[in-house]
Write a structure and sequence with these properties.
The complex is a heterodimer of chains A (266) and B (456). Chain A is mainly β. Helix content of chain A is 12%, strand content 43%. Chain A is built from 3 helices and 13 strands. A 13-stranded antiparallel beta sheet of chain A has the order 6-5-4-3-2-1-13-12-11-10-9-8-7. Chain A is globular. By secondary structure, chain B is mostly beta strands. Chain B has one domain (2-267, 275-454): Porin (Beta Barrel). Chain B is 13% helix and 49% strand. Chain B is built from 7 helices and 23 strands. Chain B has helices at 154-163, 174-190, 193-206, 252-255, 270-274, 428-432, 438-442; strands at residues 2-4, 15-28, 32-47, 50-60, 63-69, 72-79, 97-98, 112-113, 115-124, 127-134, 217-226, 229-239, 244-247, 277-280, 283-295, 298-314, 318-336, 339-350, 363-375, 380-389, 394-404, 409-419, 447-454. In chain B, the strands form 3 sheets. Chain B has an 18-stranded antiparallel barrel. Chain B has a two-stranded antiparallel sheet with strand order 7-8. The longest helix of chain B has 17 residues, at 174-190. The radius of gyration of chain B is 23 Å and the shape is globular. Classes of the chains: A mainly beta (266), B mainly beta (456). The interface between A and B is large, with 40 and 52 residues.
Chain lengths: 266, 456
């Protein structure tokens, strides 16, 4: 089947985990204090990762049973002031998906739009509906893992703190397939370094580890990240081969995120 | 590789293989993309007790350039001008010619053929305008003889060859005509793909109907992209896409089993013998539209096209022209990346269709469905596709299992199962008077398909 790729690479994804924090609940002093600190962490992480326009080339390697499988793609993301976030992905490898393009338009107030250009059929398809728990391109990342929005209903609690990192527990909204996430955020660069995914029964099912971070234009960018699925004993490695941040608008024009724009770039 | 499970006649090849090597180069820059491709095709056929046949031919694949300069985009080369949104039952894909010689065994991605074209487009915000020119024009390539999907399939050819001696009633010229006719038919039946293509092209170039007007085609296009929807309109002056084969009226009685000409008849048939067949591909104005939108969990695709002239095959291998109106609808539902359900339906109406059409109904309706499931980390795919022709009560089913052994190697096994109430024709007279549809005409051609794809 055809790729329904990411709306962001892992770095932006991790920010999405903290995209919106609920207001502190009045009357619970200790909880309010802890929640406020969690909000501080969230706010600092978002501020550190704020990127409005980016272009990245990414390589995703699927490891597990059988030979490794590699997917390579270019990702362009644009975030507008009104909260509209749009991403364009074009796969370059393997050969059977090379040329496939995916556009996701993340509206702040209504349903996402997804467009898929299929080189074998030479046409653009509108994708309606999605299963957030489904795997992206056969990898260990679920589509839910790669959404920009969807974190609106999450609740965050500061679990613990050390000299080097905060550990925050996030309970996603009811639409999520996860029961809770435990995220370790580095105090130095405010970048999440490890995420433990638990299912709704509480079992620890996946672990995301940011193995390598690079400073690009003052923004910490996860260069190598690994998602392990403990149920299937498989791993997916995401490697950012190149990244440009705050690129000119001409690199991410409005027309790029339309069916006509995709067909112009076939 | 295709294995025909039903041998129609003793000399039919029961195993056929097609091999395509696709050599492609691409230079992709920020505003310019250059492509060059070469297709090397090899076809071979085997049957018990019959010498194997094989042929190899080379031709250019999609080759050309695309350049973007601000709001302008220009495309030129030998490219595939795909339009529209439907895959199984298109109505608005009016620019492209399709290779129909392998019938339903042809993969969707190989159906559309490249053609010479120039396309100039200007974006105007969410809208765009374009002019599309095809200097030579595109044409569907149905099979006229040599395969089970041909207008004159092998069984009909074999019957014609067998019946010629009995129809040679004139003692002087009868045997000579029977022998010459038999040799001609045997040559056509045995002609390799290149020769058949050359013969069809010669028919097309030489026929008086095909010579009407210049061969260039031009279409103007307009498009608009909205939030969650898009709309495309196009109109132009082209040639009808599907050619029809016309037998010279003086020779038409031969199709119904009449005796071969006598010596006295021959001088009057000289014109007919100069051009016994012509391919009819008339000029036509065309207007088409296609649109897509997402309605909740369902994807919606619609197409429509109006033609001022479509060439229709008529019983007796004559040809008629009629305006035509096509409309089609597609629905998709994909609750996740591992499951896709799609359905398409199309209605075709011929407003001036004569009686006695061959393989087409004055008002036709078809429906198609496809289900695809991905398993085992998207290595294993299960696909089921079905097409139903409601006008003729015919159906075609194609289940398939595919396995991606690696990123470079893919294997697939499929079956083609055909159902039609009318049996296929076994003689030229039956073929000329056939009242069923195209699936029934191909008849006993249930087959197994095995496909292996290797990409470096």
């Amino acid at each position: 089947m055809l790729p329904r790729a990411s709306s962001s690479a892992v770095g932006l994804l991790l920010v999405a985990l903290f995209a919106a924090a609920p207001p502190a609940h009045p009357g619970a002093a200790h909880a309010a204090e802890a929640a406020l600190r969690a909000e501080d962490v969230i706010a600092q992480a978002r501020a550190a990762q704020r990127v409005d326009r980016s272009v990245q080339t990414v390589e995703m390697t699927l490891e597990g049973k059988g030979p490794p499988r590699v997917r390579a793609f270019e990702l362009r993301v644009r975030r507008d002031a009104d909260g509209l976030v749009r991403s364009w992905t074009r796969f370059s490898a393997p050969a059977d998906v090379a040329g496939t393009q995916l556009v996701i338009v993340d509206h702040p107030s209504r349903a996402d739009e997804q467009l898929l250009y299929l080189p074998a059929l030479q046409r653009t398809n509108r994708i309606a509906g999605k299963a957030r728990s489904g795997a992206f391109m056969g990898s260990d990342f679920a589509f839910e893992d790669l959404e920009i929005s969807g974190a609106e209903a999450a609740k965050h609690t500061l679990q613990s703190e050390s000299a080097a990192a905060w550990v925050i527990e996030t309970v996603p909204g009811p639409d999520s397939s996860y029961g809770r996430l435990v995220v370790t955020v580095d105090k130095g660069d405010k970048l999440p370094r490890k995420v433990l995914f638990h299912d709704k029964a509480g079992a620890h099912i996946k672990t995301l580890t940011v193995a390598e971070v690079k400073l690009q234009d003052g923004v910490p960018v996860p260069v190598v990240s690994v998602m392990e699925d403990h149920r299937k004993s498989t791993r997916t490695r995401l490697t950012v081969k190149s990244v440009r941040l705050q690129v000119p608008e001409s690199d991410v024009p409005d027309e790029l995120f339309t069916a006509a724009g995709m067909e112009r770039r076939r | 590789m295709l294995v025909d499970l039903a041998a129609d006649h003793p000399a039919e090849q029961t195993v056929e293989t097609w091999l395509r090597a696709d050599f492609a180069l691409e230079d992709r820059r920020p505003d310019t993309t250059l492509r060059a491709a070469l297709w090397a095709d090899h076809a071979a056929r085997w049957a018990p007790g019959v010498p194997a046949e094989a042929e190899l031919w080379l031709r250019p694949g999609p080759t050309g350039l695309q350049h973007r300069a601000g709001p302008w985009t220009i495309e030129a080369g030998h490219l595939v001008p795909r339009r529209g949104r439907l895959d199984l039952l298109p109505a608005a894909d009016v620019l492209v010619g399709r290779d129909l010689r392998a019938g339903p065994a042809t993969p969707l991605g190989r159906l559309r053929q490249p053609t010479l074209l120039v396309n100039v487009q200007r974006a105007l915000g969410p809208a765009r305008l374009a002019l599309h020119v095809q200097p030579v024009g595109a044409m569907d390539r149905p099979a006229f003889f040599g395969t089970d999907w041909a207008l004159l399939p092998p069984a009909v050819f074999a019957d014609l060859q067998r019946s010629l001696p009995a129809r040679a009633t004139d003692p002087l010229v009868g045997p000579l005509l029977a022998e010459a006719g038999g040799a001609l038919l045997a040559g056509l039946d045995a002609a390799n793909a290149d020769s058949r293509a050359a013969l069809e092209a010669a028919l097309l170039a030489g026929g008086p109907d095909a010579a009407t007007g210049a061969r260039a085609e031009a279409v103007a296009e307009a498009g608009l992209d909205g939030a969650g929807w898009d709309l495309r309109l196009r109109g132009g002056w082209v040639r009808a896409r599907r050619p029809a084969l016309r037998i010279h009226p003086a020779l038409a009685p031969l199709a119904t089993g009449a005796p071969l000409p006598s010596l006295a008849d021959l001088p009057g048939l000289s014109a007919a013998l100069d051009a016994p067949f012509t391919l009819v591909l008339p000029r036509s104005a065309v207007a088409a539209a296609d649109a897509s939108a997402a309605l909740g969990p369902v994807g919606l695709r619609v197409e429509a096209a109006a033609w001022s002239a479509r060439a229709l095959q008529v019983q007796g291998f004559g040809v008629a022209l009629s305006p035509a109106l096509d409309a089609a609808l597609g629905l998709d539902w994909s609750p996740g990346p591992r499951l896709l359900l799609a359905a398409e339906a199309r209605v075709e109406h011929l407003s001036s269709a004569p009686a006695g059409l061959l393989l087409v109904a004055p008002t036709g309706a078809q429906a198609a469905a496809l289900a695809r499931v991905l398993l085992a980390r998207e290595r294993l795919r299960l696909t089921a596709a079905a097409t139903v022709d409601l006008a003729f009560a015919e159906a075609l089913l194609r289940p398939e299992v595919g396995f991606a052994a690696s990123d470079h190697l893919d294997l697939a096994l499929a079956a083609l199962l055909l159902h039609a109430p009318a049996p296929p024709p076994r003689t030229l007279a039956e073929a000329a008077a056939y009242t069923g549809g195209p699936i029934g005409y191909a008849g006993a051609s249930d087959a197994l398909l095995a496909t292996l794809t290797w990409t470096p």
